[in-house]
Specification:
heterodimer; A: 250 residues; PH-domain like; 3 domains; 8 helices; 44% helix; elongated; B: mainly alpha; transmembrane helix (chain B); transmembrane (chain B); membrane (chain B); YdbS-like_PH (chain A); YdbS-like PH domain-containing protein (chain A)
Amino acid sequence: MAEYHFPVPGSVDESKIVIFVHRHWASFIGQFLLSMMMLILPVIILITIYFTQRVILQGLVLNFLTLILSIYYLITATVTFIAWISYYYDVYIVCFDTIIEINQQGFFGRKISQLSLLRVQDVTSDIEGVLPTFFSYGDVVVETAGELSENYIIKSIPNPQEVSSKILELHNQLLEKEGLHHQMLEAEGVLIPGSKKIEMQNQPIPPVQESQPEATIPSENKIIQNDETSTTSGEVSKDDLEKGGEIDLK
Amino acid sequence: MYLFLIFWLLFLLIYSVFNVYGIYRVIKMRIKGDKIPLAILVYLIFIGAVIFITFTITSQLDWGKNLPELLHL
């Protein structure tokens, strides 16, 4: 992340920026080569005509060709420049609490989206294709929580794995800071609802009643309950491993 | 034949206005430390070169002929 130090326009506090990243240059190669081809092709054609059919390049044709080629080159230059601006100003900023996506569309289009890191549910990095694998760039897909959840795609950035793990790390830090981590785990069914309160009161967790059906309690919850009664410094014996399912740490 | 030149000059006028406003917008949304000044410089040099070459060539061509005459109409 070489552009870490870049300040950001607008209201984002520079000190809050963790990642500041442009699209990888290799994602612009296709457009660049196309532009180069468009610039070189007329020259090649003209040289070929000049050495083979020089008679054509006379009188009215030459006048007309000069103006048409001039217009052609000016438009090609502008299209290339606009494409470069669109590429260069596609910026992704990850702060301590938000992800900001600035999507530039030519000279006159700019879309800025912000996503709270609290809404992040899952982060996936995706490197697909020959060029992305070779240059190590790809997409980061951020899945958001909520009924109208939608994927938030950070496109063609360098080191997507690094960025995705950093986003997840920041998300967890934010949850801890806001005191929401436990609630989130409870909502996801990882922890038993209310287990935090019991720990805070330093009371032993009541044993699971035999009459309660086993299927209603997720196996992860059981392990958490066992943590209270068993030591965590022991080793897992081979016999325990072969049991499958529940393992008591000895 | 002058008609072509007038069309071209008209295009150049619209093109210049578009570019001046476009570059103004780009400068307004700059990020400190970016490479935009260099890019704009290269872009303007390229445009200037194209226009200069076109002017040089057009100034040496004969634009006084009548178009229907040239087309043998």
